[in-house]
């Protein structure tokens, strides 16, 4: 019996662990070593150069541009997404007044939820192609065509370095909001109904209901949302690669680290340098996740 | 607003027989919220509908007034996209890869999750954390070595390579989610089966898997969508001169670059519509499972 048990354990674990170690763990481990070499192609012998790649990173303007863009993404994208998603999920779940003693959503809330979530199932690359024509800089673009009808001059959404990144953030928000509406809705529906009933009996208005009751009780879910969106802000690869002018342009005004890693490795064959960027990205992501969990830690409200 | 409505009970609170504050769902706030919701809904549907209609337009119509209907509805552009732009080929490739890799992910992931959640043995926690740690690493860190691991195995530019890599990178979340799920299932049924002489393997496949169905469905949907929408891994792993093996996302991204040269914009929009519509249909049919499947990871 015992013998059969261990054979069973090993038999069940062997394939998944082998696959996982070969394709996931070993690349991650190798990346840290490759980052310390000047590996530049398949034939050339990589040399160990210590931290040279990292000191070069410090002087690399494109690298810092990418880091700045992650900063902007990290500030703007999660905030806008969460505010819009909270607003909508409040409307959809709790603003319809009471029905038979229960808080209900606004009329048609189910249909809205289905529509809002829809972009989430579309591939980011497809969404990028879709928005290329919408953002076209002259009147042939959808937005500029519409603006032209009301007499506004065309905006160079993707070709103006000052707004290109914001235009890309707009697409990220467009795609993400629905997911967080559903997530927050799930959070709101797990708040006991009598909390709202008691508040409503005490004469709490919609604003009190939202800011004093819903928001604090939703804190855990919001923390999760923040971490998720933050991690997405460190990615943005597919969208920037497909949507932006010249892949990260104009003038590197939209480039992000994943794009630079991909380009440095597979266009310029600087594998060591690309891996150093990967290591930098890794430490940024980890720091962000740890900080968020630390800063937003609060007394958990049990119900 | 609150004081205004106090003495004018709405039909709903009127039915309850006593006027309450703020019960009028058709107040200013209600109207405003409807407007906000409708605007966002239009922002979502508008671009998709525009793309669909653009596939029937000609180049002049596409770049003309954005709010017009096409002059005629012909399927030429769709035919061109399917045949000439190989959307059909990309679609079949993607279905093949995703079916294989999701099946492999679910089989290997549930096996590992089951053993790790139900059997105590030395090294159990170490293996579990090895899997879970994979969720925290950005895939871009592994990109360069991954390319060479796949290349050295002779699997670069092959579907098998993509399938194995998709499976491996889907394992961390699958194992994490499913081992939490297996823990919530009662142990008594499996024990009873073992008492009756059922082997470990049979207990798993015939008793535990059916019991874990809700969790398996959620995570299957999660993996299918995630792998179907993957863009980075195909462009890295199928980067050689193997256009016939491309997956749908890289195919469409490539068409959008080529549409400019060949001036076949209707064809590009037909290609886009073709990739969006099946996903939309599946989403509308399974929207409840998909919503819970995708968000369940965050709630856990």
From TrEMBL, chain A:
Database matches in InterPro entries: ABC_transporter_permease (IPR051393), MetI-like (IPR000515), MetI-like_sf (IPR035906)
Alphabetical GO biological process terms: transmembrane transport
Keyword Protease: no
Residue spans crossing the bilayer: 12-36, 72-94, 114-135, 163-183, 225-244, 271-293
Pfam short name (any one): BPD_transp_1
Span of domain ABC transmembrane type-1: 71-292
Chief site of localization: membrane
Compartments (UniProt record): Cell membrane
Keyword terms: Cell membrane, Membrane, Transmembrane, Transmembrane helix, Transport
Gene Ontology CC terms: plasma membrane
Topology with respect to the bilayer: Multi-pass membrane protein
Family statement: Belongs to the binding-protein-dependent transport system permease family.
Protein name: ABC transporter permease
Automatic annotation (TrEMBL), chain B:
Subcellular location: Cell membrane
Region of interest called Disordered, as start-end residue ranges on this chain: 1-22
SUPFAM superfamilies in the cross-refs: MetI-like
Membrane topology field: Multi-pass membrane protein
Transmembrane segments: 26-50, 90-116, 128-148, 160-182, 203-225, 265-286
Domain annotation ABC transmembrane type-1: ranges: 91-286
GO cellular component: plasma membrane
GO biological process: transmembrane transport
InterPro entries: MetI-like (IPR000515), MetI-like_sf (IPR035906)
Swiss-Prot/TrEMBL keywords: Cell membrane, Membrane, Transmembrane, Transmembrane helix, Transport
Similarity comment: Belongs to the binding-protein-dependent transport system permease family.
Protein name per UniProt: Sugar ABC transporter permease
Species annotation: Streptosporangium minutum
Lineage: Bacteria, Bacillati, Actinomycetota, Actinomycetes, Streptosporangiales
């Amino acid at each position: 019996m015992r013998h059969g048990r261990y054979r069973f354990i090993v038999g069940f674990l062997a394939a998944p662990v082998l696959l996982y170690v070969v394709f996931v763990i070993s690349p991650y481990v190798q990346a840290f070593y490759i980052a310390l070499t000047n590996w530049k192609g398949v034939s050339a012998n990589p040399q160990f150069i210590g931290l040279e790649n990292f000191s070069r990173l410090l002087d690399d303007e494109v690298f810092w541009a990418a880091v700045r863009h992650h900063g902007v993404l990290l500030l703007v994208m999660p905030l806008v997404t969460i505010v819009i998603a909270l607003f909508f999920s409040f409307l959809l779940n709790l603003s319809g007044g009471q029905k038979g003693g229960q808080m209900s959503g606004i009329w048609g809330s189910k249909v809205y939820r289905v529509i809002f979530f829809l972009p989430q199932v579309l591939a980011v690359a497809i969404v990028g192609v879709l928005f290329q024509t919408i953002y076209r800089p002259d009147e042939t673009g959808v937005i500029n065509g519409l603006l032209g009808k009301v007499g506004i001059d065309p905006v160079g959404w993707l070709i103006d370095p000052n707004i290109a990144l914001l235009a890309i953030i707009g697409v990220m928000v467009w795609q993400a909001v629905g997911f967080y509406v559903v997530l927050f809705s799930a959070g709101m529906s797990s708040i006991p109904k009598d909390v709202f009933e008691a508040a409503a009996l005490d004469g709490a208005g919609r604003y009190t209901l939202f800011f004093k009751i819903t928001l604090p009780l939703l804190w855990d879910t919001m923390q999760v949302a923040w971490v998720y969106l933050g991690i997405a802000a460190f990615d943005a690869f597919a969208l920037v690669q497909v949507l932006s002018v010249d892949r990260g342009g104009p003038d590197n005004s939209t480039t992000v680290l994943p794009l630079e890693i991909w380009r440095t490795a597979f266009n310029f064959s600087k594998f060591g340098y690309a891996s150093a960027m990967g290591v930098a990205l890794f430490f940024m992501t980890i720091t962000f996740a740890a900080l968020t969990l630390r800063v937003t830690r609060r007394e958990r409200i049990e119900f | 607003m609150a004081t205004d409505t106090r003495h004018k009970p709405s039909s709903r609170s009127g039915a309850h027989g006593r006027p309450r504050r703020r019960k009028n769902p058709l107040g200013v706030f209600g109207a405003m919220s409807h407007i906000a919701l409708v605007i966002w809904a239009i922002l979502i549907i508008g671009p998709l509908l525009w793309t669909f209609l653009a596939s029937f337009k000609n180049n002049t119509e596409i770049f003309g007034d954005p709010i017009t209907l096409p002059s005629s509805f012909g399927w030429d552009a769709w035919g061109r996209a399917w045949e000439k732009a190989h959307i059909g080929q990309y679609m079949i490739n993607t279905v093949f890869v995703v079916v294989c890799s999701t099946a492999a992910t679910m089989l290997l992931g549930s096996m590992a999750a089951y053993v790790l959640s139900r059997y105590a043995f030395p090294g159990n926690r170490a293996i579990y954390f090895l899997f879970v740690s994979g969720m925290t690493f950005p895939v871009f860190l592994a990109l360069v070595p991954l390319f060479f691991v796949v290349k050295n195995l002779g699997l670069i530019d092959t579907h098998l390579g993509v399938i194995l890599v998709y499976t491996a990178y889907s394992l961390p979340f699958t194992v994490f989610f499913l081992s939490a799920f297996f823990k919530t299932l009662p142990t008594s049924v499996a024990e009873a089966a073992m008492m009756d002489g059922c082997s470990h393997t049979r207990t798993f496949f015939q008793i535990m898997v059916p019991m874990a169905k809700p969790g398996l469905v959620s995570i299957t949907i999660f993996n299918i969508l995630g792998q179907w929408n993957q863009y980075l891994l195909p462009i890295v792993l199928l980067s050689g001169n193997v256009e016939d093996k491309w997956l749908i996302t890289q195919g469409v991204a490539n068409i959008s670059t080529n549409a400019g040269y060949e001036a076949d914009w209707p064809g590009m929009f037909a290609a886009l519509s073709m990739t969006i519509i099946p996903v939309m249909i599946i989403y509308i049919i399974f929207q409840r499972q998909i919503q819970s499947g995708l968000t369940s990871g965050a709630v856990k």
